[in-house]
Protein backbone atom coordinates (compact mmCIF):
# COMPACT_ATOMS: atom_id res chain seq x y z
CA UNK A 1 0.00 0.00 0.00
CA UNK A 2 1.19 3.49 -0.86
CA UNK A 3 1.18 5.82 2.14
CA UNK A 4 0.98 9.55 1.52
CA UNK A 5 1.72 12.17 4.15
CA UNK A 6 -0.66 15.04 4.71
CA UNK A 7 0.33 18.03 6.80
CA UNK A 8 -2.80 19.10 8.65
CA UNK A 9 -4.25 20.44 11.86
CA UNK A 10 -7.38 19.77 13.87
CA UNK A 11 -10.50 21.12 12.19
CA UNK A 12 -8.88 21.79 8.81
CA UNK A 13 -11.80 21.43 6.37
CA UNK A 14 -9.54 21.81 3.33
CA UNK A 15 -7.45 18.92 4.65
CA UNK A 16 -10.53 16.74 4.96
CA UNK A 17 -11.67 17.71 1.48
CA UNK A 18 -8.28 17.00 -0.09
CA UNK A 19 -8.06 13.59 1.55
CA UNK A 20 -11.64 12.74 0.51
CA UNK A 21 -10.97 13.82 -3.08
CA UNK A 22 -7.73 11.83 -3.35
CA UNK A 23 -9.46 8.81 -1.81
CA UNK A 24 -12.45 9.14 -4.16
CA UNK A 25 -10.38 9.43 -7.33
CA UNK A 26 -7.55 6.99 -6.58
CA UNK A 27 -7.53 3.33 -7.49
CA UNK A 28 -7.30 1.58 -4.08
CA UNK A 29 -4.20 0.97 -2.08
CA UNK A 30 -3.62 4.50 -0.76
CA UNK A 31 -3.24 5.30 2.90
CA UNK A 32 -2.55 8.54 4.72
CA UNK A 33 -0.18 9.51 7.50
CA UNK A 34 -1.50 12.66 9.16
CA UNK A 35 1.14 15.03 10.46
CA UNK A 36 -0.18 17.56 12.98
CA UNK A 37 1.57 20.90 12.49
CA UNK A 38 0.15 22.73 15.54
CA UNK A 39 2.49 20.96 17.95
CA UNK A 40 5.73 21.87 16.16
CA UNK A 41 6.94 25.45 15.69
CA UNK A 42 9.04 24.58 12.64
CA UNK A 43 6.11 22.87 10.94
CA UNK A 44 3.83 25.80 11.81
CA UNK A 45 6.30 28.23 10.27
CA UNK A 46 6.55 26.16 7.10
CA UNK A 47 2.96 24.94 6.59
CA UNK A 48 0.50 27.08 8.60
CA UNK A 49 -0.70 29.11 5.60
CA UNK A 50 -0.32 26.28 3.08
CA UNK A 51 -2.22 23.32 4.58
CA UNK A 52 -3.21 20.88 3.48
CA UNK A 53 0.09 19.83 1.96
CA UNK A 54 0.24 16.33 0.48
CA UNK A 55 3.57 14.55 0.12
CA UNK A 56 4.13 11.48 -2.01
CA UNK A 57 5.98 8.41 -0.77
CA UNK A 58 9.33 10.01 -1.67
CA UNK A 59 8.51 13.05 0.49
CA UNK A 60 7.90 15.43 -2.41
CA UNK A 61 5.23 18.08 -1.94
CA UNK A 62 2.71 17.33 -4.68
CA UNK A 63 -0.53 19.16 -3.78
CA UNK A 64 -1.35 21.96 -1.39
CA UNK A 65 -4.15 24.25 -0.35
CA UNK A 66 -7.59 24.33 -1.90
CA UNK A 67 -6.94 21.97 -4.81
CA UNK A 68 -9.33 21.43 -7.68
CA UNK A 69 -10.60 17.99 -8.64
CA UNK A 70 -8.71 18.44 -11.93
CA UNK A 71 -5.41 18.97 -10.13
CA UNK A 72 -5.94 15.82 -8.07
CA UNK A 73 -6.99 13.82 -11.14
CA UNK A 74 -3.99 15.05 -13.15
CA UNK A 75 -1.57 14.10 -10.36
CA UNK A 76 -3.14 10.66 -9.93
CA UNK A 77 -3.24 10.08 -13.70
CA UNK A 78 0.45 10.95 -14.07
CA UNK A 79 1.20 8.25 -11.47
CA UNK A 80 -1.15 5.68 -13.02
CA UNK A 81 -3.42 5.79 -9.97
CA UNK A 82 -6.50 7.54 -11.35
CA UNK A 83 -9.76 5.62 -11.06
CA UNK A 84 -11.20 6.55 -14.46
CA UNK A 85 -14.70 5.43 -13.49
CA UNK A 86 -14.71 7.64 -10.39
CA UNK A 87 -13.37 10.58 -12.41
CA UNK A 88 -16.00 10.02 -15.09
CA UNK A 89 -18.71 9.84 -12.44
CA UNK A 90 -17.53 13.09 -10.89
CA UNK A 91 -17.49 14.73 -14.32
CA UNK A 92 -20.89 13.24 -15.22
CA UNK A 93 -22.36 15.55 -12.66
CA UNK A 94 -21.27 17.91 -15.41
CA UNK A 95 -23.51 20.88 -15.59
CA UNK A 96 -26.38 22.38 -13.72
CA UNK A 97 -29.74 22.86 -15.39
CA UNK A 98 -28.83 26.40 -16.45
CA UNK A 99 -25.66 25.16 -18.16
CA UNK A 100 -23.12 26.24 -15.59
CA UNK A 101 -20.31 23.85 -14.90
CA UNK A 102 -20.95 21.82 -11.76
CA UNK A 103 -18.62 22.18 -8.80
CA UNK A 104 -17.12 19.21 -7.03
CA UNK A 105 -17.92 20.97 -3.77
CA UNK A 106 -21.23 22.46 -2.78
CA UNK A 107 -22.24 24.80 0.02
CA UNK A 108 -24.40 23.20 2.71
CA UNK A 109 -25.25 25.01 5.89
CA UNK A 110 -22.36 27.40 5.38
CA UNK A 111 -19.76 24.66 4.78
CA UNK A 112 -18.18 23.45 1.56
CA UNK A 113 -18.87 19.76 1.15
CA UNK A 114 -17.40 17.23 -1.26
CA UNK A 115 -19.86 16.02 -3.87
CA UNK A 116 -23.31 17.17 -4.80
CA UNK A 117 -26.78 16.14 -3.82
CA UNK A 118 -29.04 16.18 -6.85
Automatic annotation (TrEMBL):
SUPFAM superfamilies: Thioredoxin-like. Residues 92-118 are annotated as: Disordered. It comes from Halomonas cupida. Pfam families: Glrx-like (PF05768). Residues 94-118 have a biased composition (Basic and acidic residues). This is Glutaredoxin-like domain.
